[in-house]
Predict the structure.
Amino acid sequence: MDGNFPPAAILRVVLLTVVLSSSTAFLEPYDLLYDNAVQAFYSSDYGDVVRYMEGALSSYGEVRRTKVRCRLRCQDQHQFDETFSDLRFFDVVLRRAACMDECIEEKLGTQSVHKVSQDVVQDFHRRIPYNYLQLAYQKLKQPDKAAAAAHTYFQANPEHVEMGQNLEQYKDLQGVEEDHFVDREARPHQHSFTAAVRLYDKGDYESAIALFEDALLEYYKADVECRALCQGPQRFEGHDHLRYRYSLHELISDHFTQMLHCEHECVRDLATRPGRLSPMENYLPLHYDYLQFAYFQVDRLEEALQCALSYLLFHEGEEFMTDNVDYYSEVLGHNGEPREKAAWYLRRHKQELELLLIGSKTMGVEFTEGNYWSSTGGRDDSNRIPSGTDGWMEYVPISEKRNVTVAAPQQLNEGGPLVYESVQLVQNSAALNGTQRVLLDHVISEEECAELRHLAHAVTMAGDGYRGRMSPHTPNEKFEGATVLKTLQYGYEGRVPMRSARLFYDISERARRIIESYFLLNSTLHFSYTHLVCRTAITGQQDHRNDLSHPIHADNCLLDPEANECWKEPPAYTYRDYSALLYLNGDFEGGEFIFTEMDAKTVTASVKPRCGRMVGFSSGGENPHGVKAVTSGQRCAVALWFTLDPLFRELERLQADEVIQALDTQSVWGQGLSINPKDEL
């Protein structure tokens, strides 16, 4: 790809120039800088990649800090008072809005240029810029900075096997030191907490105390900032904005409901490490548990009592901590009070915290030097000391809050008829080292493969199925796709042979029947999504490549390698039950399909694509899979996902069925086809 900017990008630069002429301050929008960096990457201009991408990260951080600062400042300046009235309420709201507009534009310039698409926001949340930076710094022979970028990306993407391998290679490079492996996006409260636990485990209680106290300060600060960011524009899921005609108070109610939901998630977000799906259980109370015992170890019992009482605010009546409070009070000769900040925070956010404290009754682990409990089960008060945590901070998913899928579907039968005489069984589940897996050959012929590949070249579009993102999984490949309905539409319009469009429809039905029969399913298998896809290696981007064409994942749950779990919850397509990939060619390098263990690292089976070969499997956490890098040529396939729930049948497939039925009855020639592109999923 060349480095020329599209007309839309040029127009945007012109508009920005106009905006600048009337703005007292200006910060370059991070989405524009990000786009420039990506364009530079595809042009192999790695110096510009670094310049633009570092600028984008800086701009992103500045926008966030400015919004937090301005919202908190204006919130303090324009507060709601005791005498509540409609007029007073709207007066404060309008004054806050004007205050924030003035404050933000003073630092950033016109706010409209900083409105960024949700896709770009998600890329920054997932730390995608650091993947580009790692590659660019590597090309520029700056391994120390490449190591930092790789480490930062890997913290939020621990399932990215190739990045983990890159990090191991960086460790062996001359000039790369251990302190180069830093997380550039580390959250201060989590960084201090982790460092404090290490010191605690080493018995350095004085140093641990300082870091735990710092972690608490940073936690409460981060909580305030998170809630301030929730005050921005909200997304109203399920509403058609152009037809949104509710009353003023309904609009305000909807907005505040979204805002409260966002604030509610702050508690979970602050306790969740980057790249993890679940929060660290008992996270905030655990600070006070560590502190009470650390203060005891350095003979500061007043502080120990205060922290123990603070812990009990979150876990009222917990036996081990109640015993500690009794001990501290007895030695000191007086009772104490919990920390004011902890009490205030719990009053404000009790319900949110309670949702994260499920199962935390097991968190307090008693250390009993001497005979805390006598051999007869009675308490030996003459030789007791307080109990404390054992340094446990292992990642523990809250299984009570989530539906976990770690096993194959209940129907584990396989080996049914293959329906078509030409189809040959190559490997079953046992040979593929897993469950509910099958590899078949000769599902379609060489002629059918060639026709479908020719069809793919005519109908597929870059980024189809991924909101137009040309390289959704790796910057080193171009992804193109097309649906069944779109292909039939092209056929009706005469842009491709209708025979070829019909072939795509027919062979996907052939694949569905084979999967349904082989796995001996007792109910009908419905289409969930059907996609004709091609992945093309980008010339000039393949040197020293270690990433995957498609990262390791499961099809109906969120794979969490560290917890060895797969969370069956949105945004995963939880209704998908079986998956299949029907390959159209094998004349490319790389691109092997792989199954792994749930650690996303241990490969259990590898499949080399070729014309007519199909791999089928159940869609859950029992079958993590991915695609190795396509390093040369183009890899094409028909990707199919199926569901046993008719409520989640593919809408486009139902419309395609109607088109085929019309064709078969010849009624189409008199009426024309009703294919609405807006109905596409």
